[in-house]
Amino acid sequence: MNFNSFIDVKSHLHSGKTTCVNVIDYFLKNITEKNTLLNAFIEVYETEAKAQAISIDIKIKEGKAGKLAGLVIGIKDVISHEGHALRASSKILNNYVAQYNATVIERLLAEDAIIIGRQNCDEFAMGSSNEKSVWGVVRNEADTERVPGGSSGGSAVCVQANMCMVSLGSDTGGSVRQPASFCGIFGLKPTYSRISRWGLIAYASSFDCIGIFAHDSKDIAAVLEIIAGADDKDSTVSQKIVPEYSTLLNSSKKYKIAYLKEGLESEGVQKDVKEATALQIEKLKSAGHILEPVTFDLLDYSIPAYYILTTAEASSNLSRYDAVKFGHRSSETTDLMSMYKKSRAEGFGKEVKKRIMLGTYVLSASYYDAYYTKAQKIRRLIKNEFDAIFLKYDFLIMPTSPITAFKIGELSDDPLAMYLADIFTVSANIAGVPGISVPIGEDSQKLPIGLQILANDFQEAELLAFANTF
Ligand code: GLN
């Protein structure tokens, strides 16, 4: 039996071949053995998880257990879980304890999922390497000298290293798909508005999505169908009915698939990544799907548009951290102004400060139209380009990342190179469409390579069914 697969564990729990207590013990043991080095969990709820396991085992015997009984899940440090510390990996949220449950947490707990711990990430989900965290760097289990990707690096590594079955992360510009790719697992960013953002610490509200990491499409489907859907607490969330994704995974359909030419041809894409992607295209063709190359004319504009719009939103969202009611307050303050200034100067890390300043700049009166308005227009054009592609094709595929996991520190002095590594992931957030990263092989150094599959709005059922064939 495979403890790392929820679907497998579920069937064994219900036939009495194992118990939630056994399952929890398995994960706690792995955490004890591996987490000190990997630094992926920043807090483990050992006592709570064990107690929950005992009570769920009783419920299973009585036939009263929820749909996620037996699921052991970890949560990125940006999702509010009542009574538990919440920091967004930042000093500014020092000593903050979550006051309420995010909608996703409510729904997980209502179906008897066991939340095993809180996971490391880049500060305020800003980053692609999980090196910028008050908790320190996270290491990739495939090579512990390398980064796991980011910003949800801790969440990816916890699944990669079998320290939990599934993780929840957040994806504003690739933060679920890129670390999934670097760590050799599956990572889904659903359609914008598919999952309530209530209780998710905001980075760029019109881009932010809660996403799911797992070893396969089946476990993602099982979790997505529980946490997605209408919620009175988030006015942007979709009212559309949530399909039962887990019952729609077996598809023998032959799809029409576009592949991004730039993904195979651009100079910036690593040779091994190109080869692995080309090989997948051939495999899909021989499986009977129709594959055709497409170009994405606005690809070069996606990174600038993303960094203008998200920093603008971040500068506004992060203004709430003012040291008045919660979080870090400087001990050097003399008056109200100095309290704001010193607390924020001490509390935020460099990357976050850079983005707040950049966002404030692009929103300033004299530059608003030159940057913010222009980027909004690009956003619409990118959405139009996706619409045109999905009119003709079921999916658009490309590498998730142009490169595989880089060495810790390797790109720290080159922010542009780090931002450029998001080239294939940010467009999905700009347009709001869903995407998944699936593992398709390894490079010459045995580092995982991921393929990104994008679909039209609310096509998660087809996307997960197709991903399930990998
Ligand atoms: N790497 C991107 C950034 O630094 C994406 C982050 C995210 O998706 N949260 O903004």
Offer a few descriptive terms.
470 residues, Amidase signature (AS) enzymes, binds glutamine
Brief summary of the model shown:
By secondary structure, this protein is of the alpha/beta class. It has 16 helices and 11 strands.
How would you describe this structure to a colleague?
By secondary structure, the chain is of the alpha/beta class. It has a domain at 6-247: Amidase signature (AS) domain (Amidase signature (AS) enzymes). Helix content is 40%, strand content 13%. The chain has 16 helices and 11 strands. Strands 1-3-2-4-6-5-10-11-9-7-8 form an 11-stranded mixed sheet, with helices on both faces. The longest helix has 25 residues, at 368-392. The two termini are 21 Å apart. Glutamine (GLN) is lined by residues 125-128, 151, 170-175, 203, 422.
